[in-house]
Design a protein that fits this description.
The chain is an alpha+beta fold and 855 residues long. The protein contains 31 helices and 27 strands. It has a nine-stranded mixed β-sheet, with helices on one face. It has a six-stranded antiparallel β-sheet with strand order 9-8-7-6-12-13.
Length: 855
């Protein structure tokens, strides 16, 4: 029933809880831990039986209110040792030295990797011998506290399993104490130890009574890299007769730890981490200049980088940008199959420059793809990588300005898979040159028509693929199509050249907003066309009269629409039913699989006041203004010639991605057809599980019935599960876990970001983490981390847009300019500053956001 810290046994966590188990283990490992013992869960079994068989407990389970929890807590607080408990307790306690003791909780559910219960259980310090039993009962009773019970419910833990062990430990009369982290919780750096320290007992630090000193140590170089000495006005000391007292500190600004103590602590904390083989949050204390370890528990909030992307502490670091987040606007992991096909496609269309191997330029692993900036510099040189970084948003620019020179981090070897990449890129460019030359200097219309015919042909070819064919060969056909479509998309260059010519024509005329407006709603832009069709469908009165998602699905499946609505519905389904959320992932569900997805989009659209209805007027106003200026300059012909080419070609810049998405949609169908057969034959449990397999695994499974698909799937998903708890992935991280965040540039209330789409507007903020989580009303300002094509209906309602991540070429930027919506981006952290309902101003001309006032 009782375990001394010096026991030779290794009690299970379920018997002694995480805290006591750690103290037993660290004592056994030779760490300097104050003596003590643990009253196990079994010790308290008589008390638990009495509590859990009571009416008060039953009432609390039915209604977990504060009132009911307090009733159970009071009942538990009145418990006392029975004869057997008392004999066992006194037998152990008589050998424990000291006059004062610490009494702490050690629940089997506390201080684990996924749950912490920080500050919810009671701790009693400076308890004398006569008060111990009372302190034990109060600590036991704290396991029924209302805060703790609601935390369990929120984290899906059963209240029926409530149990607790209690630690009795010699009280350290510390003159210095605090906490230490074996990685830096401020930036996730694995090679930085962070120490918080103050005078007196550690309770002053953990309870927040004082702001402790902070020390950061580079644990590889064994150097103190940062010290912050804070004003520590209060200290907590022991009272000689028991209990604690607050004392005014005579020298509040005195540095608490000496250099030697800082390094001694850093060494202790890293040794503790090595012992457990995971990052540790520890409590420590100095008594008479001797360092004691008081507690060690897992850090529950850090981001564990994939082991494959880690470098050893002494190696050159690699710096990674989250490619999907930065360029595609979502941070959820892609499927196993989806990422593999996407990465292969990217490598093909980028001429072998973006290789997906772990040591490549864009490693793709476990649902995520990164840009290895240091490997890119090895491949492209310093000027090349700077140009590359400047093509992204202001977050990236500010982060890498702060990081500084990367020369010392550039690897010695070329990135894996990039052999011959320059020749591949040259060949790709050569294939593009004829149509590019023709579109720029001769007939751009014929090049566009040729491109459209080819695009239609490639999609049709993909539709002819069959599930009976070898899956890896089907994927190769699709990959060849991606290469072909990108190689023939050079007509857009004519539009870009004409756009630059127009910009030069109006230098100094302050008409940047009008030039952007010329690109609104252009022919060939599938996103714009989709927006118009969605608006048109949402505007039908018969759609507005549909009562629910289920009702819409039923009507659509029976095709019980009016002739006009059915015609528009069929047009939408023919062109856009293959689209969906995270549509570049071959696993993502498409609209034609769930017609309710279309309903979800349509009901978001405000048909009374929508950007779709205003876009042509905005473009006309801009055109008239620019034409007038061009006439005054005598450049009317030049303007009209460039404008014609610009508007007839530039809209197709998004078209190749649209074709890629359609081809992905066809591969998606083939996968499901194949998987349904495997479900029928008992090889898979769900058709969508096929997307958790690799290309080669699917191809082999077609040939060999004996292959265990469930086992392969479980193996592939195991790394995903380990990181499923991560909600917000960082944009930039290095190979030693350090997360880099951009500084927020705020001056006189102006929050400076990137100007993405011109215009200035005020409105009430609406924060959305996912599309359709709540309605965005007309006139509101959309505030989001990042966006992708499924957000289009939301954008058309917005008066302005603020994004944390996304440059001009990410979907959010493109659609904002397409509809003339003022937009500012590149503002990581803005969602922590703005709340729903705040009145904000979006200045898309200058890239400034202002919070005018709160709700």
């Amino acid at each position: 029933m009782i375990y001394n810290f010096k026991t030779n046994k290794s009690p299970q966590l379920s018997k002694v809880g995480g805290k006591a188990k750690a103290l037993i283990e660290t004592t056994k490992a030779g760490f300097s831990v104050p003596e003590g013992f643990t009253l196990s869960v079994e010790f308290f079994q008589p008390w638990l039986v009495e509590i859990k068989s009571s009416k008060e407990w039953e009432d609390m389970l039915v209604d977990t209110s504060k009132e009911n929890c307090d009733i159970v807590l009071r009942k538990a607080s009145s418990m006392s040792f029975d004869k057997e408990q008392r004999i066992a307790f006194e037998m152990e306690f008589k050998d424990l030295a000291g006059d004062l003791f610490a009494v702490r909780s050690s629940s089997p559910e506390e201080d684990l990797e996924d749950t912490s219960f920080a500050g919810m259980y009671e701790t009693f310090l400076g308890i004398n011998r006569s008060e111990l039993e009372k302190a034990v009962s109060k600590t036991f009773a704290s396991s029924f506290d209302y805060r703790l019970m609601t935390y369990k419910i929120q984290n899906g833990l059963s209240l029926e399993g409530t149990s607790i062990a209690v630690i009795i430990q010699r009280q350290i009369a510390s003159h210095l104490s605090g906490v230490g982290f074996s990685l830096n919780p401020l930036n996730n750096a694995y090679d930085e130890v962070l120490i918080n320290a103050s005078f007196g007992l550690g309770e002053a630090v953990v309870s927040g009574i004082v702001t402790p000193d902070t020390y950061i140590v580079d644990s590889v170089k064994n150097q103190i890299i940062e010290k912050k000495i804070n004003e520590k006005k209060i200290r907590i000391d022991l009272k000689s007769d028991g209990g604690t007292k607050e004392v005014q500190n005579d020298k509040p600004l005195e540095q608490s730890l000496s250099e030697e103590q800082i390094m001694e602590l850093s060494s202790l904390i890293k040794k503790c981490e090595s012992h457990y083989d995971f990052p540790i949050d520890s409590e420590w204390a100095y008594e008479d200049d001797k360092l004691y370890l008081l507690q060690a528990r897992p850090i529950t909030t850090y981001l564990p980088l994939f082991p494959e992307l880690l470098t050893r502490p002494e190696e050159k670091k690699k710096i990674y940008i989250d490619l999907m987040y930065m360029t595609q606007g979502f941070d959820q992991p892609m499927s196993v199959l989806g990422l593999e096909i996407w990465a292969k496609m990217l490598d093909r269309i980028k001429g072998g420059m973006m290789t997906s191997q772990v040591r490549g330029t864009t490693p793709a692993i476990h649902g995520r793809q990164y840009i290895s900036v240091t490997d890119i510099q090895k491949l492209m040189g310093k000027k090349g990588v700077n140009k590359f970084l400047n093509s992204y948003d202001g977050n990236i620019k500010r982060i890498f300005e702060d990081i500084g020179d990367l020369d010392h981090l550039v690897p010695d070897k070329k990135p894996e898979g990039t052999e011959g990449s320059k020749k591949k890129m040259a060949r790709m460019i050569l294939t593009m040159l004829p149509s590019m030359f023709k579109s720029v200097f001769f007939n751009h219309r014929s090049v566009i028509e040729e491109y459209k015919r080819l695009a239609d042909k490639l999609v049709e070819n993909t539709k002819n693929l069959k599930k009976e064919d070898d899956f890896d060969k089907n994927v190769e056909i699709a990959l060849d199509s991606f290469t072909t479509i990108m190689g023939s998309a050079s007509a857009m260059m004519a539009g870009m050249i004409s756009q630059n010519a127009i910009k030069k024509m109006f230098v100094g005329d302050s008409v940047e907003k009008e030039i952007v407006a010329l690109a609104m709603d252009l022919e060939g832009n599938p996103t714009s066309e989709m927006g118009h069709l969605l608006f048109k469908l949402a505007s039908y009165e018969e759609f507005k009269n549909i009562s629910s998602r289920e009702n819409f699905i039923e009507i659509a499946e029976k095709r019980n629409f009016s002739k006009d609505l059915l015609e528009d519905y069929d047009q939408f389904m023919d062109k856009f039913s293959g689209r969906g959320f995270m549509e570049i992932d071959v696993a993502s569900k498409r609209i034609d699989e769930d017609l309710g997805m279309l309903y979800d989009k349509l009901i978001q659209i405000d048909t009374e006041d929508n950007q779709v209805t205003k876009v042509k007027e905005k473009r006309k106003i801009a055109y008239d203004k620019l034409l007038k200026i061009a006439k005054e300059k005598g450049k009317e012909k030049k303007f009209l010639k460039n404008l014609e080419k610009y508007q007839e070609t530039f809209g197709y810049r998004e078209h190749p991605k649209y074709i890629i998405v359609l081809i992905f949609a066809e591969l998606h169908k083939i996968c499901l057809e194949l998987a349904k057969d495997w479900v029928d034959r008992g090889r898979l449990d769900n058709p969508y599980h096929i997307f958790d397999l690799h290309i080669e695994e699917i191809a082999r499974a077609q040939k060999y019935e004996s292959i265990d698909l469930r086992r392969l799937r479980d193996r592939n998903l195991d790394p995903y599960k380990k990181l499923a708890h991560i909600k917000n992935w960082p944009l930039v991280i290095d190979s030693r876990g350090k997360i880099y965040k951009p500084r927020m540039d705020i001056e006189d209330g102006d929050i400076k970001g990137d100007p993405i789409a011109p215009g200035k507007v005020r409105g009430r903020a609406k924060i959305l983490n996912r599309p359709y989580e709540k309605p965005l009303e007309s006139g509101e300002i959309l505030v989001a981390r990042a966006t992708e094509p499924s957000w289009t209906p939301i954008f058309t309602n917005a008066a302005g847009v603020i994004m944390e991540i996304g440059g001009p070429l990410q979907h959010g930027g493109i659609i904002a300019r397409e509809y003339g919506i003022p937009c500012v981006s590149g503002l990581i952290g803005i969602m922590d500053l703005i709340e729903d309902g705040d009145l904000v101003e979006v200045d898309g001309d200058n890239g400034i956001v202002r919070i005018i006032n709160g709700k």
